[in-house]
Fold this sequence. Notes:
- The protein is mainly β.
- It has one helix spanning 188-197; strands at residues 10-11, 24-25, 33-34, 57-58, 66-85, 90-98, 105-111, 121-141, 151-160, 164-169, 172-174, 177-178, 183-187, 203-207, 215-218, 220-222, 232-234, 237-243.
- Strands 1, 2, 3, 4, 5, 6, 7, 8 and 9 form a nine-stranded antiparallel β-sheet that branches. A five-stranded antiparallel β-sheet has the order 10-18-14-16-12. A two-stranded antiparallel sheet has the order 11-17.
- Strand 6 and strand 7 (105-111) form a beta hairpin.
- The longest helix is centred in the last third of the chain and has 10 residues, at 188-197.
- The relative contact order is 0.19.
Amino acid sequence: MIKKIIHVVTLLHAAHGSKGGASFNLASGRIPTGSSDSYDASFSGATDGSSERDGWWRASPHDNPSFLLLDLGAPAIITSMNITGGDPSFKMLRTIRSGDGIDWAIVRQERTPHHCLGRRTTQHAGWEEPTRYIIIQMEDHCSGVHIGRFSLAEWRVYGFYDAGMVQKYAKTWPHCENLGACFEYVDLEAAQATCLADPDCDGFSFSAASVSRGRGGGCYKTLCKDDGNNGYGHGSHGYWVRQRPSGNWEGGVLHRPSTWPWGAHWPWGNKAAL
């Protein structure tokens, strides 16, 4: 079920903030996809770290509404977003989120009159739900821009990947120093809790046959930042790593099927009709 929350957008006058700790630009280095881009202003321009005109994203002509979709690689806590516009173009922004690419929810729909002035930056509050996929949909051309293309200079998504244990490898483990005795026939959740309770534990190997659930054997690892430098073992065990609150996802790339929130009719249907 989709729930909609209306918030008011404010013009950004200062750096982003976060609740309870540091936030990182999770969009940095991640190229979005979307409804369209242009030969001279591709999707990568939306998150390339530059607000210069030659690094913008622009939708193709007549693409209205236009949207950008960002995959953060794993669910993250979103503390805020800010968006620097390009040319005057849109005066309505819709934000949509998903934790798994299957179930989608509207975060908010808000008016953005500052983006009718061009090259202005607006700040947008975060939300509580862990989110992997974010869509921003630009709607409603500004007065006098009836056919022009929507454009963005930069899209920044601030937040962090929360602390916990995350699976990094299915049949590989780093040859880091063992922390205490190895274990056999231990429940995966118990192994995770044990590692999290020890500040020296960076992760643990776990039987490949049950690396995602159930009981198995393995060894807790220490001095294993970035997998250490002693090589890897392969085949019999996978590896769970300790995710610390940061802007870097420590786990493996999660390949999951996803669907558009507009259903099978996109892009030929009405993208705005969520």
